[in-house]
Amino acid sequence: MTIPDDFDVPAPFKKKKYPGGLYATCTDFDFDLGKWVENSGDYEHNPFNERAIGEEYFNPFNIYGLKSVDSKSHGFSYTQWLYPVREINKMSSEKKIAALDQLDILVSRVRPVEINLTEMVKRRPEHTKFELNYVNGAMVIKGYDDGSGMITPGSYNLPLKIEIRSTAHPTPVIGYGNGRIGVGDEMWVWDIFDSDCHVHRKCGEFPVNNEPVDIELIYGKDVMVVKVNGEIRHVDNDYGYIKEFERNSAFTMSSPVWLMAWGGATVTVESLRVTEL
Hints:
This protein is mainly beta. The chain has 3 helices and 21 strands.
């Protein structure tokens, strides 16, 4: 029910105001809304929508003393299950091919910079729970998902490609600008411009052995690409930094690259390379 702002609501009733947002909704708690969203080709979970509401009970425990007219649903009570979602931007195949071809041309012209792992420094040295070791030339990070991690001493400009060789399970979180990305069986992407979170669950199975895995992140002007062992796992242009490029052709961004472990995990990084495109 929607009422005007100046509508007079007599006691004991109260107004409740909810900010806007897009939700999948169902009143049947036996229905798996999360699974429905996961299988949808049109919507994806929007987990960090600050406006998100999990369950909302209207007139719980019949605090307003309403008479039940429906013994099955209790009549006086109403429960709403709201699952925050966002519409999936469907980039056309033609645009993907054109964007990937352009990126291939850019990548072929530039030589990557090999990062000396021993020269990286702690991003937040005040975090005492963070551990760092070097084993056979590889950097071993053990920490918590609190924004700490190892950061490159220099900054790099967009567009760029980040390449990392790491253990497969778990891989480090790779950060740049205001965003970061966790790559695995599902992909969590925080936009490098506005930190908006995207969750992608249909990106292919991740290696399960203990051999190293090669991950490439390409932040192009027209598209963002994620590759695992040379295989494209994600291509999309529905990101804030790309929209900023579209609004302002002079837009630029410069940031170090940083690596972090998920809460309590231990990750091993064998190499890190950055290429400004």
